[in-house]
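#struct-pred
JK: can someone run the complex with adenosine-5'-triphosphate? inputs below
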Amino acid sequence: MKILEIVGDNYFGNWTKSRTGCRAVIIRDGKILMSYETKTDQWMLPGGGLEEDETEEECVVREIAEECGVVIRPSSCVLELDEYYEDCKWPNKYFLGEVIGETERHLTEREIEVGMEPRWIPLGEILSIFSTHAEYDGKDEMRRGMYYREYTALREILLSELPDAIREKVSGKDFRIDDLGKSGSKIFLFDDCVLKCEPRILENCPDADPAGVKAAPFLEDQDKTVEVMRYLKGKLPVPEVLAYEKDEKYRYLLMSRIPGKVACDSYYMEHPKEMIRVLSDALKLLWSVDISDCPRKQDLDAVLAEAKYRVEHGLVDVSDTEPETFGEGGFKDAEELLSWLMENKPSYEPVLTHGDFCLPNILIKNGKLSGFIDLGKTGTGDRWMDIALCYRSLKHNADGTWSGKVYPDIRPEVLFEELGIKPDWDRINYYILLDELF
Ligand SMILES: Nc1ncnc2c1ncn2[C@@H]1O[C@H](COP(=O)(O)OP(=O)(O)OP(=O)(O)O)[C@@H](O)[C@H]1O
Ligand SMILES: [Mg+2]
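RT: done, structure tokens with the ligand placed:
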């Protein structure tokens, strides 16, 4: 177990008082359990002071129960962080916690006064809140010290969970976490590289084994992503693979960072002519790649096979679809849509497809394409799949569906003009419907 030290400017050089605090890091579905003081707008990792007659593990279990009403099973201590201020040493012991039940909360008078409440908050968000520690310098020393401590501890613990080969490559680098994606992946953004940690199991899958998890066979096909990225090196602007590791729960892909901004960045949304020209250039560039030895097939039969698996295993979220797809005038359910897709396959124009050609996966720098990211579905497939997803992405990034902001100047049809093609609505609609099953 690692021991870190924070020595305050006001430390006397020796200490006479000490009290150990035990805190828990409890992460579920990308969110972390925090204690939030509603009256003072202050966040902290749940935990508290060790009492005389208890072990550190007992202390952390008791504190989380009292503060959050959550029963946890703690790991052994994963980090000790010792703070030195004036004549005090404050050892802080951190534990990972797994939720195993609920209980009644019991708050102290002070906690009631500050309106303490348990909150699950995305990891990336809490890290960025704690990263503001320096702003409290000279204004609120307590908060500055606490935010700095939790920032240091959380970053250390998150990195310590990574496989050795990955950790060695990123140790000492500053990072933030991006958790906007839908896939449940955790993304660490470093200055010059990006680490994508993708779950290998589907939690709470109806087809789950008794432990509540199910290894999904098609997810393993994602190993191919790395092969495809290596294959595309030198052919297209894609991230370079720096390391790739797996453990029981995650696949870890460390790659170079593509410079620039995502195509749905507000600058490009406000300059649609420039943005749509880049999207069109990006599509043409994909189609220019010789696909004769591409290591992954993403043709319609392969995509339909995966869709079938998802439908049969209850993995399709029908609430996250276009409003007209299901219900009155649309399909009854995912099974009916799948049958229709199987019976109405369009003819096939093979090219290299990105597979998830949406605005957040295309990066632009100084008005030019700087790269493609998120290549988990890239392979040989149909040209119209990318056109359809690009069109839908333009439409919904512009009409406020995804960001809440409306950009009335964006006309998605300009894409076809830039590409110099006539829209084939049957195919476009087919591929939009197919994507509803993912
Ligand atoms: N190699 C990279 N270079 C630059 N930025 C990256 C890179 N990889 C990821 N990012 C940033 O992280 C964000 C999320 O990454 P990515 O698109 O791979 O995952 P995701 O969208 O969360 O996953 P999914 O689409 O599978 O749900 C991107 O929108 C981008 O801002
Ligand atoms: Mg993405």
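RT: quick notes.
The chain has a mean pLDDT of 92.
Residues 178, 181-183, 185, 187, 194, 196, 239, 255, 257-258, 262, 356, 360-361, 373-374, 376 surround adenosine-5'-triphosphate (ligand 1) (CB under 6 Å).
JK: thanks, will look after standup
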